[in-house]
Amino acid sequence: MAKGDPGVSTRSRRAAPRSRKGTGGDPELVQLLTPEGERIDSVVGPDGTVYSVDFTDEEYRGLYRDLVLVRKLDAEATALQRQGELGLWASLLGQEAAQVGSGRALRTQDMAFPTYREHGVLYCRGIDPIMPLGLFRGVDQGGWDPNEFKFNMYTIVIGAQTLHATGYAMGVAMDGKTGTDDGEAVIAYFGDGATSQGDVNEAFVWASVFNSPLVFFCQNNQYAISEPLERQTRVPLYRRAAGFGFPGVRVDGNDVLASYAVTRTALDNARHGQGPSLIEAYTYRMGAHTTSDDPTRYRIASEVEAWQAKDPIARMKAFLTKQQIVDADFFAEVDEQARRESLHLRERVLAMPNPEPVTMFDHVYPNGSPLLDEQRAKFSRYMESFEGSAH
Amino acid sequence: MATETLTIGKALNTGLRRALENDPKVVIMGEDVGKLGGVFRITDGLQKDFGDQRVIDTPLAESGIIGTAVGLAIRGYRPVCEIQFDGFVYPAYDQIVSQVAKMHYRSGGKLRIPMVIRIPFGGGIGAVEHHSESPEAYFSHTPGLKVVSCANPQDAYVMIQQAIASDDPIVFLEPKRRYWEKGPVDLDAPLADAYPLHASRIARPGTDATLLAYGPMVRTCLDAATAAAEEGRELEVIDLRSISPLDLTAAYESVRRTGRAVVVHEAPSNVGLGAEIATRITEECFYSLEAPVLRVSGFDTPYPAARVEEEYLPDIDRVLDAVDRTFGW
Ligand SMILES: Cc1ncc(C[n+]2csc(CCOP(=O)(O)OP(=O)(O)O)c2C)c(N)n1
Ligand SMILES: [Mg+2]
Question: Whole-model pTM?
Fold first, then answer.
């Protein structure tokens, strides 16, 4: 488990320290680990912020483990859908680093508002990975308690959760829970497509005006189903923040270290009362939009291959190998753990019972309603009227 | 006469193609309608053939789609907007209810908004939340809007063209679970001679009770009528086609003959279309009725998890149960 409080843990750097503004390839991109697995010691962001991480070897290994596990569990869910065990699945393939990096940057007291694709963040929050599978299997609406895990329900309606996150963050500020090291911060996840929604732009306005302790975390995976980024914007997304009056930064979303560093900094700024910021995690959706989608209709194979070379896990593996912070068995052991956990997930999904039909009347209102009580009673009598009915 | 067997989806696609060919002012706009051809492929191939000025992939914002379509309409275009799923129309609700619906009235008749808002609606495809809703009552309750739904390929082909040609803003509800159902479509019959858009039609004649439905539930009612016939009961099925305005002339005539009526829709019953239809039938046919007009509908809950949608949705058994109750009165 990577916690990595910069300045707290002991340094374990083996590469010669390097520091630069952005990276050679893209000066706008904060990157601490190149696709080849080279470590960059620190990077200066567009507003002069210096980004770096200071993980122990154990923490580096933990991040790698997280990345492999969330990818494997995700692949298992895709396989389950293919076999008819899930109705649908929205894969995070390719976005593991953005999710694990930001997810591990959250402190226990921080609250997250996800879309429908944040299985990696959910994992980092300590939620059983089976939880979202109920929603996609069609047996429940998604099972965890948002307040217990500080991770709200998945939100499918594009952009809506950014306003919820903003309101929650306003509440944090109203409760006086900012301004200290142990203050609270909030993170809102959304996609590149979502940036076009009115709700998201209104969230920007609100968060700015009320100086809310909020991090807008946009995973720019280059597509909104079939529509490429150019359908949503003519400027890099992170620059939109300036117009709303708060800082924006673009991070290499396939770099778990940089994703961690920029998110940790943004969250800490928020918890200290310095207001909202926008992170654009520049990444790529390696798979289909969901299992219902056929991406060959709208994008070419060479584009996917080019991103394959920037794989978030391969670069972490290269780094760990080069820096010799793993022993010979480590990678095999992680793979084995991933295999075990995904098998365990599969077994439990297959055992998930269908809900009793009458449960559809539950939870519509906290204290029931006469109309529904009557409908439920009629429904039960109707179901019982069938011969040999199990109901 | 070129009659072809098409699915409802393909019939809509062909109807849209016709509309684009026949009127250069027709434009299609929505999320993923271009290269992808829409998530249900209803606009498949249209951008390729008509270009990206006429088949427009919009940014991801429903209020933006409808709001800009209003402007295009004022400018003389005929926008055909696709809302990807029923549950995603609500970000555009303000534009539809406050702007689209009222523009003609507010301008004293000087502005027309000849817009079609296509929405795949209803359940039955095992989808996750927000993908199976039946929002027709929200729109039918709004003066200035018209609301229609097709139930077979022939109507899909004709009604989409009629809706586009109409000067009214029309919410066009497509029964998504029926997209793959096939039937004959006469592709050459002139639009001018077609059956009127806002008229109901007897889908199956019968003598013993009247079933009233639109969109996806027409098939359910036809299947129920087939099952009832095996037990010696002849049910008349009326496909309402137009939800607002409602055309109940055939319904009144039918109920005066049968004395019994059951309204079937997927949407929850509370303050729904069934209530309106039952009231009007009661007002018009009171002395012919042998039993109260009954409703079979979705329950007054949010659309449930996919694994219980079969129990939520009206099916043959629930329809026939209601018919039985009208006989037991
Ligand atoms: C309001 C709304 N409109 C349309 C949809 C259908 N839809 C689901 S995902 C999606 C694309 C989202 O793209 P993006 O925000 O980039 O997120 P990504 O899926 O790439 O993670 C669309 C249009 C929706 N869920 N909600
Ligand atoms: Mg995207």
Answer: 0.96
This model of the complex carries an ipTM of 0.96
Atom of ligand 1 nearest to the CA of B90: 1
Query: Which residues in chain A land under pLDDT 70?
Result: 1-25, 388-391
Same domain, A380 and A261: no
Q: Cβ(A157) to ligand 1 under 6 A?
A: yes
Q: What is the CATH number of the domain that holds B240?
A: 3.40.50.920
Ligand 1 mean position, distance from CA A158 (Å): 5
Determine the structural domain holding residue A322 and report its residue range: 6-350
**HEC string of A39-90?**
ECCEEECCCCCEECCCCCHHHHHHHHHHHHHHHHHHHHHHHHHHCCCCCCCC
Asked whether A11 and A54 are in contact (CB, 8 A), the reply is yes
**Rounded to an integer, what distance in angstroms lies between the CA atom of residue A325 and that of residue A2?**
15
pLDDT for A22:
45
- Distance, in Å, from the CA atom of A70 to the CA atom of A119, rounded to the nearest integer, reads 7
**Residues A289, A308: Cα–Cα separation, whole Å:** 17
User: Domain check: are A151 and A269 in the same one?
Assistant: yes
**Residue A314 domain-assigned?**
yes
Segments of A174-266 assigned E as strands: 186-191, 214-220, 223-224, 227-228, 248-252
Q: Are residues B142 and B73 in the same domain?
A: yes
Q: What pLDDT, on the 0 to 100 scale, is given for residue A389?
A: 58
pLDDT for the residue numbered A25: 53
Taking the CB of residue A379, how many other CB atoms lie within 10 A of it?
A: 20
Lowest mean pLDDT among B1-5, B143-147, B323-327: B1-5
Which of A157, A197, A359 has its CB closest to that of B61? Answer: A197
Residue count of chain A, please give it.
391
